[in-house]
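Q: A small favour: would you put together sequence and C-alpha cells for a protein?
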Amino acid sequence: MRDIVSWITEKELENIYTSEYWNDIKEEKKKEWWIEDGNYKRCLNFLNQSLMTEYKSSETFINNYNGDNIKVADLAAGIGWTSVLISKLKKVKEVL
C-alpha cells in the first residue's frame, strides 16, 4: 500500500473557486450520485445514462492496447466508480 500524497493543503483546498459547490452537503444531497439516502437506483440511472459510454470507450481502448501492465490516470475521477472498474481489467497494473 502506498502513502497518500497531498497535493495541496486544506487551506488551499478551501480557496479553490469550486470548493463551496463540492463541499456543501445540502448541495451534494441534490446530486444524482448521492447514495447516503439509500437511493442507489438514482445513482445507477445517472451512471448508465451519462458515464457508461465513456467507461466502455476506455475499456475498449485498454483491451485493444498493445501491451500489458498499463498505468492509468483517472483525472476528475469523482466518486471513483470508473477507477474501480478499470483497475479490474487484466492489462491494467495501476490506476492513479
Observations:
- Helices lie at 10-14, 19-22, 25-28, 40-64, 81-87.
- DSSP finds five helices and two strands in the chain.
